[in-house]
Amino acid sequence: QVQVVESGGGQVQSGGSLILTCEAAVATLIFSTYDMAWYRQAPGKQRELVATITTRRATTYEDSVKGRFTISRDNAKKTVFLLMNSLKPEDTGVYYCNRPSGSLKWGQGTQVSVSS
């Protein structure tokens, strides 16, 4: 099963920015055929879909992050990025990447903590 590794999380103040990175352990050609997504899980809540990017780089966003988060990909590096601006305390959680179907092996995620 394909494994992913997320990184880039940290502690920031409200209004700050972070860039998350997700690298997939799969051949470049195969990665380029995957739609990809970022998810997050806030403390005590279920994992939720935050953003998606298709193979053609079409993107979708959960309403609360529209205009603040940007998902992008670099197929040559088998990597998906999530640029997060204007962070809010409610963005706090563990962020994961996977396909929209969730078919890849879930990674450890990367913790994002936003203080007010």
Structure characteristics:
6-stranded mixed β-sheet, single chain, 4-stranded antiparallel β-sheet, globular, mainly beta
Tell me what you see in this structure.
With 116 residues, the chain is mostly beta strands. Helix content is 3%, strand content 47%. It contains 1 helix and 10 strands, in the order E-E-E-H-E-E-E-E-E-E-E. It has one helix at residues 28-31, and strands spanning 4-7, 10-13, 18-24, 36-41, 48-53, 59-61, 69-74, 79-84, 93-98, 110-115. It has a 6-stranded mixed beta sheet with strand order 2-10-9-4-5-6, with no helix packed on it. The chain is globular and about 40 Å long. The protein starts with a strand and ends with a strand.
Low-confidence stretches: none
Rg to the nearest angstrom? 13 Å
Which whole number gives the mean pLDDT?
97
Shape: globular
Approximate strand percentage: over 45%
Major sheet: arrangement of strands: 2-10-9-4-5-6
Produce a short descriptive summary.
With 116 residues, the chain is mainly beta. It has one helix and ten strands; from the N terminus they run E-E-E-H-E-E-E-E-E-E-E. The chain is 3% helix and 47% strand.
